[in-house]
Write a structure and sequence with these properties.
single chain; 2 domains; DUF1468; two-stranded antiparallel ribbon; transmembrane; mainly alpha; 167 residues
Length: 167
């Protein structure tokens, strides 16, 4: 026996943090809910893909990602932070609630633009140029992709002035 073998302790098996397991479970639960809910919409029609096919595929992706995450955590648990940044959690939850509450009043484009600017510029401390480009692309791009590409109507502003300029 050497002195090294006496002074080193065997590595104990690292455990997956309970909070990580809760996150994986929540992720999987959302995926399973989407899978089950999309079945009621119909996956296929006589004309081709039905309205439930895309949500079904996304639910399957969520479940698969949860399984991959679980396998990764079981093989090598991630380092967990000492504490949760409660300010960040509160900021995200409150800003999402505000976004949902003003969406019908301001419309999708303007409310999403303001939401993204808040998170990019104020919370993320990005430059003005980067924040503006990402927020404009995200809000206007998503609006046009859904409205004209997918024929899904998103809310427009309730204010006539904003509505006349396309917001």
């Amino acid at each position: 026996m050497t002195t090294e073998s006496l002074t080193t302790t065997p590595k104990s098996a690292a455990r997956v943090a309970p909070s990580v397991l809760v996150g994986i479970g929540a992720f999987a639960a959302v995926g399973i809910y989407v899978l089950v809910s999309s079945l009621g919409l119909g996956l296929w029609t006589s004309l081709g893909p039905g309205p439930g096919l895309f949500p079904f595929a996304m639910g399957g992706v969520l479940v698969a990602m949860a399984l991959v995450w679980l396998i990764q955590e079981l093989r090598r648990p991630s380092e967990t932070a000492e504490g949760v940044d409660r300010g960040l959690v509160v900021a995200v939850v409150v800003s999402l609630a505000i976004l949902a509450s003003v969406m019908d009043l301001l419309g999708f484009q303007l409310s999403t633009f303001l939401f993204l600017m808040y998170h990019l510029k104020l919370r993320g401390r990005r430059t003005w140029v980067t924040s503006l480009i990402i927020a404009l692309t995200g809000s206007v791009g998503a609006f046009y992709a859904f409205n004209y590409g997918l024929n899904v109507a998103l809310p427009v502003s309730a204010f006539p002035l904003l509505n006349t300029i396309g917001l």
